[in-house]
Each structure stands twice: as structure tokens, then as C-alpha cells.
């Protein structure tokens, strides 16, 4: 897909604004900007946008639908052969899609059950980096493993030789403030690291609440709308 007229300038401006928000949030709590990665959530947006963001220096991209992602990753590779890019799966993942997702994803950020962890392990042909998705309010219907049971799932993942536990991911629930949610997550992660010191990633914070997440230890913010604009209709 060809680059839309004016899109490069639009994305460059948005990226600059997002980076400045991250920088201000880090300064406010005495953290370095290099402590927080920017993960561009490119779901529903074309590969041409990913190519522009790559030109602008981004290297981490997130998708939430296997079919769309596999197509987009291939298109991006054609648009920018050899460009550095790491792809994350940030959507709900069915166990029967594990093998397909591992065909394009460099990390799966939504492991929320032992059964999904086992499915990924069976599908893996090489070690896979994963994050455990945490439900802070316990509403697993919205995705995530109950925060109170996080150690059990983390232990299960860590004991699976095909999976590398890199940390946790969450979405702040509507039932509490972002500050409360991210504070609870940080407390849980602090305890988790006693047994899993390599679980250093805290993927928390999106376009509307990234400042609160950074204030509570987030090491990766997932930004879609503030970077790319209002969501497009999903690809068929």
C-alpha cells in the first residue's frame, strides 16, 4: 500500500508529542527516558504506516489479530527489507492459534493461563519470550490472570523450557483509577522479582494513562491512538 499524502508529517508530529509526554513523565519521577520503551500499537493500520514509523526510529510494534498481523509483517518486510523490527502479540490469544502467532510474533504479551502457556510451548520451535497478562480487578472476562494468583502462573511459565518469562502486562481496569491499578501491579511485580529476577518488563500504560503508568514503574507503554490517530476499521 502506498504512503498516504501528508501521513509522514502527521506521524512525525504525533511521535514527537508522544516522546515528549514520556520524557516529561520520566522527569517528574526522576527516571531516565531510556527506562521506558515505546511500543507502537499498529493494529488496524496499514503496513505503510509501520514503514514510516520505522523510518522515524521506532523498532517495536504490536498487533492483536493473528490474521491481520501475519499479513502486515510480510508487507512491512517487503516495504523495508532488513529494517529492524520486533513484533508483539497484545491481543487475546486462542490456544489453537499459538503456532500461527509464533510465525510472526517475537514476544507474546498476553499469556493468561497455564493452558495457553502449554500451547505456546508445544508450538514453539525455538525459545519464546512471553509476558504474563495480569487482571488487576480479577475480571478475567476482560483478559488477564488474577493478580493474586500471579506467582503460580509465573512459576509455571518459568519452568517451561520453551518459554522465557520477561515480565508482566496489564490494562488498567475501569473499576479503579489508573494510579491505583498501576500501584497494585508494581507491588505485585516487586514481590514476583524475588523469585524471577529476569522478569523486568512492566508493560503498562496506553495513550490515555501512560504518565500514571510511568510514575508506577512501567518499562513499556503501548501507544496507538495518540500515535496513529483514531482507530481505522479492522481489515477483513
TrEMBL record:
It comes from the Bacteria. It holds the Pfam family Ala_racemase_N. The keyword DNA-binding does not apply. SUPFAM superfamilies: PLP-binding barrel. CDD domains: PLPDE_III_YBL036c_like. The modification N6-(pyridoxal phosphate)lysine is found at residue 43. InterPro entries: Ala_racemase_N, PLP-binding_barrel, PyrdxlP_homeostasis. Keywords: Pyridoxal phosphate. Pyridoxal 5'-phosphate (PLP)-binding protein, which is involved in PLP homeostasis. Belongs to the pyridoxal phosphate-binding protein YggS/PROSC family. This is Pyridoxal phosphate homeostasis protein. The lineage of its organism: Bacteria, Bacillati, Actinomycetota, Actinomycetes, Pseudonocardiales.
Amino acid at each position: 500500500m502506498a504512503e498516504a499524502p501528508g501521513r509522514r508529517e502527521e506521524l512525525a508530529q504525533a511521535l514527537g508529542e508522544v516522546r515528549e509526554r514520556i520524557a516529561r513523565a520520566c522527569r517528574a519521577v526522576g527516571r531516565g527516558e531510556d527506562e521506558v520503551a515505546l511500543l507502537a500499537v499498529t493494529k488496524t493500520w496499514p503496513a505503510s504506516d509501520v514503514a514510516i514509523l520505522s523510518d522515524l526510529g521506532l523498532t517495536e510494534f504490536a498487533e492483536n489479530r493473528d490474521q491481520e498481523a501475519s499479513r502486515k509483517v510480510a508487507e512491512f518486510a517487503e516495504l523495508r527489507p532488513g529494517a529492524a523490527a520486533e513484533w508483539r502479540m497484545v491481543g487475546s490469544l486462542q490456544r489453537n492459534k499459538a503456532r500461527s502467532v509464533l510465525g510472526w510474533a517475537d514476544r507474546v504479551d498476553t499469556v493468561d493461563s497455564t493452558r495457553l502457556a502449554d500451547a505456546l510451548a508445544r508450538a514453539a520451535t525455538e525459545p519464546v519470550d512471553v509476558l504474563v497478562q495480569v487482571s488487576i480487578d480479577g475480571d478475567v472476562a476482560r483478559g488477564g490472570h488474577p493478580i493474586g494468583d500471579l506467582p503460580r502462573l509465573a512459576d509455571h511459565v518459568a519452568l517451561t523450557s520453551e518459554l522465557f518469562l520477561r515480565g508482566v502486562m496489564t490494562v488498567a481496569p475501569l473499576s479503579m483509577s489508573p494510579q491505583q491499578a498501576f500501584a497494585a501491579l508494581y507491588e505485585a511485580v516487586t514481590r514476583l522479582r524475588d523469585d524471577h529476577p529476569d522478569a523486568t518488563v512492566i508493560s503498562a500504560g496506553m495513550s490515555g494513562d501512560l504518565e500514571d503508568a510511568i510514575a508506577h514503574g512501567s518499562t513499556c507503554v503501548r501507544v496507538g491512538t495518540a500515535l496513529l490517530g483514531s482507530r481505522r476499521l479492522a481489515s477483513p
